[in-house]
Amino acid sequence: MENIAIDFDSLSEEILTRYAGEWVAIINGEVICHGKSFKDVNECCKTLIIKNKPLIGKLPENSLSVLSVY
Predict the structure, then answer these.
(1) pLDDT digit string (tens) for 18-58?
(2) Separation CA 3–CA 49 (nearest Å)
(3) In Å, how far are 47, 51, 69 from 16, measured between CA atoms?
(4) What are the extents of the domains in the chain?
(5) 6, CA 20 to 30 Å: which among 28, 36, 53, 56?
(6) CB distance 3 to 31 below 8 Å
(7) What per-residue confidence (pLDDT) applies to 67?
(8) Are 3 and 21 in contact (CB under 8 A)?
């Protein structure tokens, strides 16, 4: 669980603002997919060739909540 917090804590203010209210998939602090629904982001991740499973969570307007891991 510590790594999850580190991934989201390391997001820049620009990313938090840019994707506020959206679902994001993150690997090593980088957003690799984003969208309005978990399903859209999960499907986007499945189309990418990636070695590690991304962390998928929603960036609400005013606070952060993590729902799931791909």
Answers:
(1) 999 999 999 888 899 999 999 999 999 999 998 888 989 98
(2) 22
(3) 24, 25, 19
(4) 2-69
(5) 36
(6) no
(7) 56
(8) no
